[in-house]
Amino acid sequence: MGDHRQLAISISNTDRPLLAHVLAVAGAGRITSKATARPDHTPSYAYTNENRQALALLRQVHLYMRSYKAARARLILDNYVRLTPRNGKYKEKKLAARTEFARAFFSITAHGKQCRGLVP
Prior knowledge:
This protein is α+β, with helices and mostly antiparallel strands. It has two domains: 1-51, no CATH class; 65-120, no CATH class. It has four helices and three strands; from the N terminus they run βαββααα. The protein has helices at 16-26, 51-61, 68-83, 92-107, and strands at residues 8-13, 30-34, 44-50. It has a three-stranded antiparallel beta sheet with strand order 1-3-2. The model has no long low-confidence stretch (mean pLDDT 88).
């Protein structure tokens, strides 16, 4: 109960003004400071955007993606809304489809694996 994965987009960088620009353009999300491992490390930050707001951002940027993340973005854009009820309550059939969606998502890796058998 309540253990379903959520869509999130995260960008980490040491240039906070760059992340502030992303936040301003996206119109949603937040910037947080990341812990530094050593005192001589440059402070870094993370911009994070989640759920339906992240989906809107993904629609804006997916055409510029060039790695395995482009395939993951396409899978999300094609299936996320259909498989994610706004109230977070899943019936058995939709939960099974959502589980298959997550499996397909994580099967797309930088090592060239592709997703297969996504439940329509």
